[in-house]
Design goal:
Blueprint lengths: L2 H27 L3 H20 L8 H15 L4
Helix pairs in contact: 1-2, 1-3, 2-3
Length: 79
Amino acid sequence: MNKQKGHEGDVERLIEEHQPQLKAFIHRRVSSKEDAEDILQDVFYQLVKAVSNTLNPIEQVTSCLLYTSDAADEGLGVD
């Protein structure tokens, strides 16, 4: 089995599993729909990078995603 294909399936599954909760979390913190979508996209981009880094696997995916989105909120100056 192609290792890259395995990671792609993992990422797709993780996105499908966590997107609704993460999207709601971000929308509660950000008033702009566009900013919220940008944050969501950035968080999943970070997830793709982390999943492909087999030297440092993610053990607590939900915590990692929420932490990443919270950090992105702070980068936008959202309280």
